[in-house]
Amino acid sequence: MPLRLQLRYANKPAQNHVLFEGKEYLLGRSDDCDIVLDDPSVSRYHARISARNGVWQLQDHNSQNGCFQNGQRVNSIALARLADVTLGPVQCRMELVEHRQITAESSFRQWRQRYLNAAAENMLRETSLNNLLQNASDTLTTILSSDRAAVIFLDAQGDISHCSGYPEWLGGQTFSGSRTAIQHAVDSQEPVVLAAVHNHAELAQAASIIKNHIQALLVFPVIVGHDVVAVLYADSQAEHRAFLDTDLAIVRSFSRQLSMALQIQDIEVRLQQLQVS
Fold it and tell me: Which InterPro entries match (predicted)?
């Protein structure tokens, strides 16, 4: 049975890999590894994973910072159907999956891209700003398969001025997401995507993260001109939910499309004002 390996880093999205029986996989920092772990604390050749007689096994490759399970350093272990192992500082979740599940997940990724393409065309044609925002929030919820997702607009000071999407966030005062993560994305004009928030040195200590039990989050700035006018926000309070590099890629594409649609809306408003005057 195939094995899904999910790599969870402290400061970037998770990565999924599917491993198949009949091949030995070398994990490490070196580019010639079968699965590259992008962290300086991981050894160049850190560990090996292979299936023997239908049982997946992990073996340490004399790594400097070791392999750990349940806080104990291990040299060789047989992996259960669901196993959490740490290679250096990188959290690895390993899970046996059926072939049909792999096929279904691949089909979903293809469908998601088609859905986004169709939604982007609709956004570019939309003449009502309210409808545009509702369509954008619906699209974000769908492509991330997340209930706690919203398009959040900011005022000149970078505070939440309007929220379209997750109903409980429609009033800025009741927002139960991470304002700290939003501020990071606004200040840097770069996305903040964390698969395991508790591993992030700064955000793990943020009051909003602790109070609202946020386990994973994604914040992507929507830039019009040179300014961040909104963020695409999603988080999860579920312990094992992680946002992936594939989620980041599709949200990046969606952000570009939404930015374009907002610019078209702004141009149309200005043209209407010129006609009135």
Answer: Cell_Proc_Reg/RNA_Proc, FHA_dom, GAF, GAF-like_dom_sf, SMAD_FHA_dom_sf
DSSP code of residue 64:
S
Q: Which fold has domain 3-97?
A: Tumour Suppressor Smad4 (2.60.200)
Give the number of other CB atoms < 10 A from CB of residue 216: 25
Please state the φ and ψ torsions of residue 169, each to the nearest 5 degrees: -100, 0
Looking at the domain that runs over 100-276, which CATH code has it been given? 3.30.450.40
Rounded Cα–Cα distance for residues 230 and 222 (Å)? 5
Tokens 């890629």 — which residue?
249
Q: What is the C-alpha separation between 234 and 144, in angstroms, rounded?
A: 8
Query: Per-10-residue mean pLDDT for the chain, 277 residues long?
Result: 93 93 96 95 96 93 94 94 93 94 94 94 85 88 88 78 74 78 92 88 87 91 90 88 92 93 71 48
Measured at the CA of 234, the angle between CA 233 and CA 236, to 5 degrees, comes to: 155
